[in-house]
Amino acid sequence: MMPKLDIEPGSSNAYHTGDWRTRQPVYRNKWPPCSQTCPASEDIQAWLALATERQWQAAWRKLTERNPFPATMGRICYHACESACNRKHLDSAVNIHAMERYLGDMAILRGWDHKSSRGTPQAQRVAIVGAGPAGLSCAFQLARRGYPVTIFDAQAAPGGTLNSAIPDYRLPKSVLAKEIDAILALGIELRLNSRVGKEISEDDLRDEFDAVFLAIGTQQPRPYQYDNRPNGDKSSHSVMSGLEFLHRLNRGEPMPLPKHIAVVGGGNTAIDVARCIRRLGAEVTVICAQDSHGNHHRELGTEMPASLQEVIEAETEGVQLIYRAGVRRLVRSGEHLSGIEIAHVDQVYDRHGNFNPVLFDGTEEFVPAGLAIFAIGQEADWQGLERLSQATESDGVWLGGDAVGKSKLAATAVGSGYQAAMSIMARLKGEPFVFDAHKKAQITFRQMPLHYYPKQPRHEGEISEQRLDGFKEVVKGLADDDAAREAKRCLSCGVCFRCDNCWHFCPDAAVIKTTAGYEIDYDYCKGCGICAQECPCGHIDMDLDPASARTYSAQVLDP
Amino acid sequence: MDKRDTFRHNVLTSGHRACSGCGEAMAARMVTDLIGPDAIYINATGCLQVFTTHNQQSAWQAPWIHSVFANAAAVASGVEAALRAKGKDTPVVVQAGDGGTFDIGLQCLSGMIERGHDVLFVCYDNEAYMNTGVQRSSSTPHAVRTTTSPPGRLSQGKHHLKKDVISIIAAHHMPYAATATIAYFPDLKAKVEKAMRIQGPRFLQILSPCPLGWAHDSALSVTVSRLAVETGLFPLVELEHGELIGVMRLAEQKPVEEYLRPQGRFKHLFGTKTGAVELRHLQALADARIRRYGLLDADTQWDTARAMQSARHGRGGYASSMPASEEVKNDA
Q: Between chains, do B305 and A527 touch, taking CB under 8 Å as contact?
């Protein structure tokens, strides 16, 4: 038997080394750059994290909290999120749009519905004018929180521009229809062929409903000028607007086309039109007043507005592009168009920032074309809505979507619908409206030790071989295994993904691992900063320790 | 007993008096948690012994003996022989600093290995006598500033080279000798677990940065130890019976300057002509080590990039007896 010692050793736990600390680590979630740039303010990091666990339905539900159109947006959105992705500093950006589409397609395939997310029924009724992405997004948010919603649309089918002006090779109609059906299944009343001001009056709308959301979109082509004739908004067999062309194509109307066609405009609509024409078998030249991408004129705003990806696709498909060129006149022989005379554009915008190109004399060129399609922008058609459009939110009228605001992206419309829904609900409940979208990103790749992440190639959807053979979709969805791997490429910027680094590296065993995550035991943390330094995703901040801050200010302020 | 953490024993628990950011405390906590509390730990004099047993308070949650500086290996030999006589197979582990290994304890260590005792000897190498105030040891690298090798008009820090102790140990033809460092936990874990499966004398040399003696920011302990490996100055190798059986390949060789810059102990080398010569010398030493161990062209998938990779839900836990964490194997 060992004799008992005079002094029994105690545990060092009795000694709290925490008071050595001048700085303290704090776990803090940060808003990543992808979400900052997403016009619909999706919490991309969160739904990708669920996808890495193969919790597909949970991921889809997280995604649809902000955007009820994942299969649609995954196909047509120009994914600003990917340009902002921190991963591009390691290898290449996460293929966010393909993941979004994958989840959306899976929801359609497996028939997931939004019903489980319905809230308690409310009494106040909301009218929405326009069944495009903004109107449907707003209706979706309101309906899932229990509000009775009625949507009015002048067209015979819902979807707005998504339905009437997006070609099938980018977005098959069935995909859009299924996502709209899932939204309408929340009990939303849809009145088609009902133009406000015609089938229903402005006053009826105001009397019947507690709130009105106007999301009428831009369904009217901007008037185009040629031949010094004031306005050619009447289409003829030789001149047409881009929107008109797409509408007719989407309605399936037969269009006899000449061999050569010129498209005027530098936006995404112009590119859509050109790619459609290639599929119909004609030659096409796009005449764009702006510069091509990457021509160092971005600060002057003279880069063409179309998405780079779309332009690359168009060039691959044989679309000819002429940059910095404007239309001088249409060259006719009788009523028949033989081509367009173009000239070099010096200034694209005037000093007020309006599109007003200056053409240089003597630089004229002839582009042969039997049809000129003007895709130079579109506007809202406020006819019949004159009084409502002047009303304000305090009158119970909200405006949103493409019809207001500068950005004409579908995702912006979805975000605008969400914002309107939140604002409407706040007003109906008499609560102050606080909007959390467009939060600033708080994390850049510089705050992240990227060497902790393995390099992995980006997974892409397969590209169809016979792309010009009809209007079949060009890009296929991700394969199942690729989707799970692609989700894992997310760096989880600013949000803990439980890599254990802080826990492994703490010299003082002051990081406690729990089933829920990690906790810092401030009784013992000496504030060395290793956890923050070695956190791959920049989730840990080193703050000034409050206790030592007090001591410090006491010393400085009370000498 | 400290039972705050259900995923780890914390054999070396909180409240110890190591400096903020101590690489040795981190290394010792990793190693002892991998071995677990059912072992007898013999600790030579040094930082680790001093900062863990202060004022009648012990940070050890396992049987632990303090030996004098020179004889840790001899004490371990005796403990192991006694356990063997009693028919027990409790693991015996020696922990010592570079002073207790390279210099003062080398004779006893050599004897322990020669007699074939079943003991794991772990050397936490922080490259000087930090406990007594940063005096040079035979582990201190060339050109380092310590209080007993001060740079000045006639000197650029320590004249001599770092003792190649792993080769000396491996020359005993012992079962297992390896080097590791704190930056690569999966590598450290694999080596400790392998050592614990082997019978006979085993040796681990673990590079443990010292923010005080190396004069770097306390937050950079892991970063600095990673750079020591990536520059080739501290090769991670495994030797069995004197033969090199594995190395960690360098995915990319970094210039030694990246390793030296954050450390105040090399500060005198920058901006002077004589310092520039020593910088070239240190680079040549790194290059020579890379050539000697074939660190750039070794035929292995285990490289510095792969060993760094973090994964969702953990890079691997501690002892297998612990409750399983939600470990999801990274299938990439």
A: no
Nearest to B57 among A12, A497, A534 (CB): A12
Fold (CATH) for A33-112+461-488: Fumarate Reductase Iron-sulfur Protein; Chain B, domain 2 (1.10.1060)
Mind listing the pLDDT tens digit for each residue in A91-126?
999 999 999 999 999 999 999 999 766 778 889 999
Homologous superfamily of the A220-378 domain (CATH): FAD/NAD(P)-binding domain (3.50.50.60)
For the purposes of burial, counting CB atoms within 10 Å of the CB of B76, is it exposed (0-12), middle (13-18) or buried (19 or more)? buried
CB neighbours (10 Å) of residue A156?
9
Q: What does the pLDDT look like over B65-74, one tens digit per residue?
A: 999 999 999 9
Backbone angles phi, psi at B43, to 5 degrees: -120, 120
Judging by beta carbons within 10 Å of its beta carbon (0-12, 13-18, 19+), is residue A211 exposed, middle or buried? buried
Q: How many CA atoms lie within 13 A of A133 on its CB side?
A: 32
Contact A7 B56 (CB under 8 A): yes
The domain spans of chain B are 23-308
Which member of B22, B217, B316 has the closest CB to residue A507?
Answer: B22
The reply to whether B319 touches chain A by the CB within 8 Å rule is no
Residue of A nearest to B9 (CA): A509
Taking CA–CA distances from A490, the nearest residue in chain B reads B312
Rounded CA-CA distance A240/A242 in Å is 7
Asked if domains A12-30+496-557 and A220-378 share a fold, the reply is: no
Say yes or no to pLDDT of A157 above 70: yes
Top CATH class, A119-211+380-429: alpha beta
Q: Are A274 and A263 in contact (CB under 8 A)?
A: yes
Q: Choose, out of A489, A504, A512, A548, the residue to mutate when testing the contact with B (most B CBs < 10 Å).
A: A504
Pick the CATH number of B23-308 from 3.40.50.970, 1.20.1640.10, 3.40.50.150, 3.20.20.140: 3.40.50.970
Per residue in A47-65, pLDDT tens?
Answer: 999 999 999 999 999 999 9
Topology of the domain comprising A12-30+496-557 = Alpha-Beta Plaits (3.30.70)
pTM for this prediction = 0.87
Kindly determine whether residue A510 and residue B20, on different chains, have CB atoms separated by under 8 Å. Answer: no
What ipTM did this prediction achieve?
A: 0.93
- The reply to whether residue A505 touches residue B26, judged by beta carbons under 8 angstroms, is yes
B330 within 8 A of B306, measured Cβ to Cβ: no
| CB < 8 Å to A17, chain B | 14-17
